[in-house]
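Problem: given the chain below (253 residues), write out its structure.
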Amino acid sequence: MRNGKSVHRLYRDMRMNEHNKKYHEATDSPGPETDRETYRQFNDAEEAEAWAQRHYADLLGLPPENEIRRSVFFYTGSCYRLYNKLLRDCTPLGSDEFEKIDFRESREEIAEIQKINKVLLEHTLPENIVVYRFTHKRIIRRLCNSKLVHKGDVFSDRAFFSTTLVRPLLEGFGKENWCDCILKLYLPKGLPGAYVSFKDGRSCLNEQEFLLPPNIKFRILRIYGLKYPQEIECMAIPRDTENSAWHMDAGRQ
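Solution.
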């Protein structure tokens, strides 16, 4: 019996070690394009705002009555749930199939979605940066189409992808919404997207939000299984240098 228990424990330990290896191993030696040390991280809201004003002044400087600003502002404030549901319920935005859909009663919303997407595709990152997104593990499993997620898995979301430049600013949001997962996302220079936290008296949000267009692919680099919330490091996968490649092909895996 003692020998039987020893064999059982040895087998159990081997299985556990293999499981931990999948979830906690460091990434393989990264090449220049995935060297995470070259990705800028923001320490506080002031640093993030100063960076945004340098690189996205054309968007942030639009007057409140401007049509583009109003569209983006309303998305971040109250329309994001509706727009993202529409995007997730149909074929990828920008695909031939999407263009053929008769949205009927949702035509105005789709027009707004396309307007916002156009703005995001017209702006690109000036340097490598790190952003964060609080979410749930079940959502990542669904996007990966798997019961378990592993290093190397690739996922994308058909909806707009909201992130924050400063992690502590959304920790309260994560707790209030019972988020059990946080994505640490490495975004390479040239990736489409824009800083959309307009500073005016109409919003009390302080999210330092960087918004990505739909269908950008991410590859999982590392999973910290013993942390809570669980932290997953991901790298946005570079595509063709033409903006259209990000939304025409990224949703097809």
